Amino acid sequence: MSLVLYNDLTRKKEPFVPLKDGEVGFYSCGPTVYDYFHIGNARPFIVFDVLRRYMEFSGYRVTFVQNFTDVDDKMINRANEMGITVQELAEKTIADYFEDADALGIKRATHYPRATEHIEEIIDLVKRLEESGHAYEVDGVVYFDVSSFPEYGKLSRQNIEELQSGSRIEVNSSKRNPLDFVLWKAQKPGEPAWDSPWGKGRPGWHIECSAMAMKYLGNTLDIHSGGTDLTFPHHENEIAQAEAATEEVFVRYWLHNEYILIDKEKMSKSLGNFMTAREARKHYSPLAIRMFMLSAHYRSPVNFGPEGLQQATAALERLHNCWSDFRYAADNRPHSQGQDDIVESIKRHRDDFVAAMDDDFNTAGAIGHIFEAVSTVNGHLKGNDSLSSEGIKAIEDFFRDVDSIMGLIGLDSDGQDDDSEEIESLIRKREEARSAKDFATSDAIRDQLAAKGVILEDTPQGTKWKKKI
C-alpha cells in the first residue's frame, strides 16, 4: 500500500502522487505573530510536522514552507499597546514561537517566509490580478472580484448566491460585492506601509500566502494544510486569487485538521477556555502534549484536558521505559548469533505501523502498533538472558525509524538520545566515586543528572537511566 490522503477538495481519499517524481512541495499555514501560539495552533503544527517527517522517511525530498504573518491589524494594535514597533513585536514573538515549537519537537521548516519580506512578490501578484480583470482599486484599496472567478466556493462547498444573500455590504463600503475581499489595504495614520501602484499601503491577509507559496513552490503545490477553520474564507480566497492569476491548479491536495476542544467546547477566548502552548508546557511535558495530539486522527476533534494528558503521559512513560530497558539490556547482556523470533515480530509491527501511516497518516493507529511492539520487546527482555545481534538491530532500527517520524522519544539521527554521551560519562564518574566510597561526589553527580531530568536506577548489573517525562 502506498500513501493515501483525504483531499478536502474532492472529499475523498486519494493515492498521493506528487507533481514531480520524488519531490513534494508542502505549504502549511503558520501563525500571526502577535502572541504565543495556542494549543489549537499546536495541533496542525505537530500533525503536519509528522506528515512531513513520514514523507521524508518514505524517500521524498520535501520542501516544507510555513509562513509568518508579521503585519496585520492584531499586530498593529498589540504593538501600540506595548509601545513598540510592529517589527519589534514580530521579532520577539517569532523567537517565542521557535522556543515553543522546538520544545514540542516540531522540525524546522525549509523556509519561513514573512509577509513584510515579500512585498514585491505580493504587489506583482495583485497587479496581475488587476490587469487580468480579477481585481479593482477604489481609493487605494484593491479588492478581488469574486464574481470573476466562477469556481469560487469549490473547496468549502459554499454556494456563491447563498453567501451573497446572507452577507451585507458595510456602510460606506466601496466593494462591488459583499464577498469581494481585500488584496491591498490603503495606509491609515500610524500604520506600517509600503509604496505600491495604488499608493502607500500593506497586503491583505489572504494574498500573502498565495504569493509566498508560489515563490517557493511554484504555481502548483502538492499539499497545502491548516486548521479546518481556515477552509473558508482564507483557503478559498487563496485558491481564487492564485488560480485567477496563473490559470493553473493551485493545490493538488488540501488537508485540514479538526478543532481542539476544551471541556468538550471549541476553544475560544470568549468562553474563557483559551490556552497557549507556553501555558500548557508549564503543566505537561512537551512530549506528552505531542503524544496527545497524535493519539487521535487529525480529522477528528480532540478534547484537551487533564484525563487525556495524563493518559498520554503514562503512554509516553511506557514507551521511554521500554527503550531504556532495551538499551540497557543490549549494552549489558551477552549477545548470541543466529536468527531470533523477535526479528519477524518486529518486522510485522513495522509493516503494520507503515500501513497505518499510509492510510491518511493515521497516527492513532500507528501509535497502537508502536505499543504492540513495546509489549513484544518487554516480553522478549523478560524471557531471555541473552539477545541476538539480529534482534538488537531489528529493535534499534524500529525505535529509531519510528522516532524519526513521530518524535516521541527524542533520539538523534544516529538513534541515540540527544545528550546520551554526556549522561553516560557522568554515570561512569558516579560509579567510580561510589567504588571509591566518595559518596559526596556520587550524590552531587546524581543531583546534577536529576536536574537534567535523568532518573537513575542502581542494579546489581550496573546503573540504568531514563529521562523523566
From TrEMBL:
The enzyme's E.C. designation: 6.1.1.16
SMART domains: DALR_2
Catalyses which reaction(s): tRNA(Cys) + L-cysteine + ATP = L-cysteinyl-tRNA(Cys) + AMP + diphosphate
Residues bound to ATP: K269
UniProt cross-references to InterPro entries, sorted A to Z: Cys-tRNA-ligase (IPR015803), Cys-tRNA-synt_Ia_DALR (IPR015273), Cys-tRNA/MSH_ligase (IPR024909), CysS_C (IPR056411), Rossmann-like_a/b/a_fold (IPR014729), tRNA-synt_1_cat_dom (IPR032678), tRNAsynth_Ia_anticodon-bd (IPR009080)
Database matches in CDD domains: CysRS_core (cd00672)
Residue interval(s) of motif 'KMSKS' region: 266-270
Compartmental location: Cytoplasm
Keyword ATP-binding: yes
GO biological process: cysteinyl-tRNA aminoacylation
Residue span of motif 'HIGH' region: 31-41
Manner of cofactor binding, per the entry note: Binds 1 zinc ion per subunit.
GO MF assignments: ATP binding; cysteine-tRNA ligase activity; zinc ion binding
Assigned GO CC terms: cytosol
NCBIfam families, A to Z: cysS
Subunit organization: Monomer.
Listed name of the protein: Cysteine--tRNA ligase
Species this protein is from: Dethiosulfovibrio peptidovorans DSM 11002
Lineage, opening ranks: Bacteria, Thermotogati, Synergistota, Synergistia, Synergistales
